[in-house]
Amino acid sequence: MADNRRPENMERITTPELALAFIDEQLAALRAQIGDKKVLLALSGGVDSSVVAALLIRAVGRQLTCVHVNHGLLRKGESEQVIEVFRNQMDANLIYVDAVDRFLDKLAGVADPETKRKIIGAEFIRVFEEEARKLEGIEFLAQGTIYPDILESGPVKAHHNVGGLPEDLNFELVEPVKFLFKDEVRVVGKALGLPDNMVYRQPFPGPGLGVRCVGAITRDRLEAVRESDAILREEFAKNGLAGKVWQYFTIVPDFKSTGIRDGLRTYDWPVVIRAVNTVDAVTAEVAELSFPLLQHITARITSEVKGVNRVLWDVTPKPSGTIEWE
Ligand code: XMP
User: Ligand 1 center to residue 272 CA distance, Å?
Assistant: First the structure.
């Protein structure tokens, strides 16, 4: 059993210098562990898996194969950025799997939140396993496990409860950031040259936009979630709120209301804005947004997002509301 306790004398990585020292240490450790063998990594584009990918690319180059599964529930531009950063800029061996139809077909008609999560998690493992079986000679599986995952105090990944790869795949684990806290992973990511919008990104749930397209997911309503989320993120970035507000996103519930556009009656969905601040995601406060900003975002969403005629602002703290809507 690997020791899963952070060494007591391990210094907190708070500066670029400390990050560079950590990187040097890890590169040597990774090369010693992996030798000339091959490693596989599921690369979502989140901070943890991106930092692990960047470390492994430096340590063992094309002995690493990254698999990026697009399950159709990612934010606008996310898969494209993974391809741009890792394949084009870092010359990674990256397999892009377009599994959008597979996931959306499996999810069709499923309204129960936990069933949706289970389907997404199980299908993800299945797609990744299929890709792993196509590759030859893989001996190691890299993972972006971080220390809060080990301590199980982090509510964010505690939702991942779908099991893992089948035993017969029998990979040895490579977990270079398993003793780091999130802020340390970010400092290391920055030192590795990853783009700021990857390093400082807000938390994003594994089931992605799937839990924000409330109830049974349909492709058109999912697009409304994705497009409204992109507008919200763009406006937060423009107004200096990205990196200041802990988490912000949009939700599209499964009901319609009447509206009016160009003199004609519409019957369309509302978009809900959720923006919260928290320390540990166990409780959360609503972020105060300026009214002119809310009005501007509302105008953009109702004119640019298809099928939407209203914008609502969720002013509920946690508790009583959770951060996500399902
Ligand atoms: P809630 O909604 O429980 O969310 O207040 C707390 C934090 O956890 C994230 N979250 C998830 N993360 N898989 C994840 O990886 C999930 O199923 C999941 N559900 C919620 C949520 O975005 C927030 O940061």
Answer: 17
